[in-house]
């Protein structure tokens, strides 16, 4: 990881946290809550200024942020306001404000994270265009060529999953079984809705490397090797990290595919890392019979309406995917290792983004995408009903509203302590998982 990459990751994570706390702060100011302090970052204070009774400061470690309300009982991000210096009957103290106002103040942290994601994706789509679920082209050698679906039709569902964004489409394709038929819902420009079932079929043999791989933290790791390809010292082995093919970065899928297709029976120079050491291999592609691709080519639009529409829908798709992932985690369908990413993993992702970018524009766009993704993820995480997250505070306020009386201070203290212990243990576990991934263990 480069210094600039690490710096980018730290700043992105810090920015998301500052935005989150800013949501609490702005809502509190709007409702006249008495605020003691608003801090950007953590650690020793570098700069502090007091204005209208509020201490504003910037601290040394560029992670985190906090807002301290007078008279709160750990309601916001585990901060504790100093009610001792105030009249306990002061209507502007946190605990003396109406529940609905406290709920809005608590909720505005995640809400501002979501708003940030909307703005980021609208900005990105304004700069690059928005891919919308409308068929832009149909290739002759794909399954789509044998359907009544035409250019200009809108794809509405795939295998029962509603398609609103490219993320929805990607998730649906990932969940599709290799031998299962494709069930495609679509709508014509005239408004006619229909659904077609497409059976899988084999495509003519074509040159392939003969490996399966997964990308983790920007690294392309070989999972398995076709029995007929070169293996061992002369070829790929499971656990190899593929760097490039014929000098083309392995992450550049389109150019890699072109190089393999054009190779014929000529060997390709492959650069890998094996057991921590760089290795060069000469691999001759295999002629492998594969499944004919579905061939959904969508439309890139630069219309303002499509840009705003996708800028709003894309974060919603991320949110739905995150919720679905949490459900799969509790159902045991995905492992814990694949479900959590802590600060080390986030910084590592940003560093890989900087390292792999081919131009400043690519790097900026990819970092902005990461900012949008993480804004949704952190906003969602804070809404979980687990102490000491915002979602738990909202749940307790809801219970108080139903009971029409406050919960006991002892109950809040016990649940807060249990939540704190849980998060310390979870934090240690997540950091350990981050280190395992980073070190390739």
Please supply descriptive tags for the structure shown above.
441 residues, four-stranded antiparallel sheet, 42% helix, alpha+beta, Pdz3 Domain
> Beta fraction of the residues?
15-25%
Give the overall pLDDT as a whole number: 85
User: What does the overall shape look like?
Assistant: globular
Helix fraction? 40-55%
Element string (H = helix, E = strand): HEEHEEEHEEEEEEEHEEEEHHHHH
Task: Quote the distance from N terminus to C terminus.
Answer: 17 Å
Number of strands: 16
Poorly predicted regions: 74-84
Protein architecture, described:
With 441 residues, the chain is an alpha+beta fold. Among the domains are: 3-113 and 383-439, no CATH class; 206-288, PDZ domain (Pdz3 Domain). Helix content is 42%, strand content 24%. It is built from 9 helices and 16 strands. It has helices spanning 3-30, 99-128, 166-174, 253-263, 304-330, 343-356, 360-382, 390-403, 409-439, and strands spanning 35-51, 54-69, 130-137, 154-158, 161-162, 182-187, 193-198, 206-208, 211-216, 219-225, 241-245, 248-249, 268-274, 277-283, 286-288, 297-301. The strands form 5 sheets. Strands 9, 10, 11, 12, 13 and 14 form a 6-stranded antiparallel sheet that branches. Strand 9 and strand 10 (219-225) form a beta hairpin. Helix 1 (3-30) packs across helix 6 (343-356) and helix 2 (99-128) packs across helix 5 (304-330). The longest helix is centred in the last third of the chain and has 31 residues, at 409-439. The radius of gyration is 26 Å and the shape is globular.
């Amino acid at each position: 990881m480069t210094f600039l990459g690490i710096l980018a990751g730290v700043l992105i994570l810090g920015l998301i946290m500052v935005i989150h706390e800013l949501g609490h702060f702005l809502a509190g100011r709007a409702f006249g809550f008495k605020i003691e302090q608003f801090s950007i970052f953590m650690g020793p204070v570098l700069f502090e200024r007091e204005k209208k009774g509020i201490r504003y400061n910037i601290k040394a470690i560029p992670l985190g942020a906090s807002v301290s309300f007078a008279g709160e009982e750990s309601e916001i991000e585990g901060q504790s306001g100093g009610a001792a210096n105030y009249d306990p009957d002061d209507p502007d103290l946190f605990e003396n404000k109406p529940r609905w106002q406290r709920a809005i103040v608590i909720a505005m942290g995640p809400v501002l994270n979501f708003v940030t994601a909307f703005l980021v994706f609208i900005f990105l789509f304004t700069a690059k265009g928005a891919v919308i679920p409308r068929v832009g082209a149909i290739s002759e050698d794909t399954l789509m060529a044998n359907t009544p679906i035409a250019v200009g039709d809108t794809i509405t569902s795939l295998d029962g999953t509603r398609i609103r964004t490219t993320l929805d489409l990607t998730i649906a394709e990932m969940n599709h079984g290799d031998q299962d038929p494709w069930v495609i819902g679509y709508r014509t420009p005239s408004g006619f809705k229909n659904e077609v079932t497409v059976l899988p079929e084999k495509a003519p043999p074509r040159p392939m490397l003969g490996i399966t791989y997964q990308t983790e933290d920007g690294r392309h790791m070989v999972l398995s090797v076709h029995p007929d390809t070169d293996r061992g010292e002369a070829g790929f082995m499971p656990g190899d990290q593929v760097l490039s093919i014929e000098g083309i970065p392995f992450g550049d899928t389109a150019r890699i595919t072109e190089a393999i297709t054009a190779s014929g029976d000529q060997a390709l120079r492959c650069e890998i890392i094996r057991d921590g050491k760089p290795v060069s291999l000469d691999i001759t592609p295999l002629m492998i019979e594969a499944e004919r691709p579905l061939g959904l080519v969508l439309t890139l639009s630069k219309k303002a309406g499509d840009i705003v529409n996708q800028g709003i829908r894309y974060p919603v798709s991320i949110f739905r995917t995150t919720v679905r992932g949490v459900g799969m985690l509790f159902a045991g369908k995905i492992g814990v290792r694949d479900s959590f990413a802590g600060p080390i993993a986030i910084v590592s992702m940003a560093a890989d983004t900087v390292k792999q970018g081919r131009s400043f524009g690519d790097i900026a766009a990819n970092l902005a995408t990461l900012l949008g993704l993480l804004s949704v993820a952190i906003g969602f995480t804070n809404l979980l009903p687990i102490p000491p997250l915002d979602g738990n505070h909202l749940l307790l306020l809801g219970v108080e509203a139903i009971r029409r009386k406050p919960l006991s201070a002892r109950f809040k203290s016990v649940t807060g302590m249990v939540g704190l212990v849980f998060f310390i243990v979870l934090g240690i576990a997540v950091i350990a998982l981050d280190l395992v991934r980073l070190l390739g263990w």
